[in-house]
Structure formats: structure tokens, C-alpha cells
Amino acid sequence: MTIDLFAISVDAWEPQRLAGFWAGLLGREPADDPRDGLTLPPDGEAGLRIRFLPAQTPKVGQNRVHLDLTSATSQGQRETVARAIELGGRHADIGQRGDEGHVVLADGEGNEFCVLEAGNTFLAGCGFVGAVNCDGSQAVGYFWHEALGWPLVWDQDEETAIQSPRGGAKITWSGPPLLPRHGRDRIHLDVAPPAGGDREAEVDRLLALGATRVGTGRHAADDVVVADPDGNEFCVLTPR
């Protein structure tokens, strides 16, 4: 049995405001959930759920996870950038040279994301949210490949990527060197067993794959918190 990727979870100082930004940028309607805070439901069978959960501390330092948005045309890239700025985003400097082709932006709480240039063949057909781009080792890419049961679609020069058999956004890991960690990761993957699944059995399987148990209650009292082989925390939720 494998777990399912339940959501890309974002710790937010102001969840409602941040969800509004991403709802406007991605063209989705937020849903209010008593357990999950504000959520942007998946846009189709292979889409990613994005949820915004309250956090007590502001963002510090560059995130180790960000979204890559795709562009069908050069004009489309410019329009996405302009829409993000209009919604309250800004240009961000993470050390890029300026000639990469993609545009680095940040949302209203400083979470970085990229708007890719048209013609990106690696993310062709993945949708507007083309990738969840993670700073991580080859080993952690292998871990998530086994944890989710998603095929490896890239494994070269210590860079890895997986993708759901249904398609949709890829999850990528860029290999070393890894960015420094600034406290708890504000953007992280959360998983859940399928309906009727055995969560404790799945936690045991994750531990056997190289995860470590951290504790409980990152967002809800019954969340089981574990960390992948790179030390990135994520929650194993009750079956949905």
C-alpha cells in the first residue's frame, strides 16, 4: 500500500489573505475547512490541493520548496507576472543572474515562486502549476518515489523528479548543495492513507524507508509528524 499526497501545505501568518493571492493567481476558488484552514481544491483529477494553515511566526530566509508556474507563450508569462504583482506579489532576488528566462517572484508573505518561460519541455503537459520544486538530495527523491509510489521521471546528476501516474505537476529535487534551514519549513508536503487505510502501518513503512518520527500535532492534535531523510517535516494525516 502507498500513501496519497494530500496537499501542499503552507504555513501562513495571514491564511485568508495568502489564500486570496493564490486563488487569484491560479484561478481557483478557496474553500473553508474547519480542519484544514483555507484550501484551494485540486483543479482536476491530477491537480494539487494547496492549503493555508495558521502559523505564529513570519517567514525567515529562503524556502526550500516553491512552485513553478508554466507559460504557453511569452505574452502569457508576462501576463502571469503582471497578475501576480497586481495581487500583491513582488519580484524576488535569490541570486539569479537575470538571464535565466524564468521570473522569480514572491507572494505577500515572501514565499518564492517562479514563472517559467514558454517552451519549457520538461514540464510540458503538466498544467499551469508545473512543478513543486524542492531543494533536496537524490536520496530524498528516491524516498518519495517509494513513499507515494509515483514513477521517477528524472534521475540524473543527483537531480530527481517524480510524477503521479495520472499526470499533473511533477515534484522535483535539485540535489546538493542544500539551502540552510530557517526553523520549520513553511511549505511542506502532507500525506494521508487512502480511505480505510491503516495509518500506523503506513507510518511504519515510511520509517522503514528512512523517515524519522518527530511527534504529533503540527497543525491538528492527531497529525503524526515525521521527517524525510533530508530532515524535512511532513504530516501523515488520518485517512480521508
Automatic annotation (TrEMBL):
Pfam families for this protein: Glyoxalase_6 (PF18029)
CDD domains (UniProt xref): VOC
Cited InterPro entries: Glyas_Bleomycin-R_OHBP_Dase, Glyoxalase_6, VOC_core
Domain VOC, first and last residues per copy: 125-239
Protein's name in the database: Glyoxalase-like domain-containing protein
Organism taxonomic ancestry: Bacteria, Bacillati, Actinomycetota, Actinomycetes, Micromonosporales
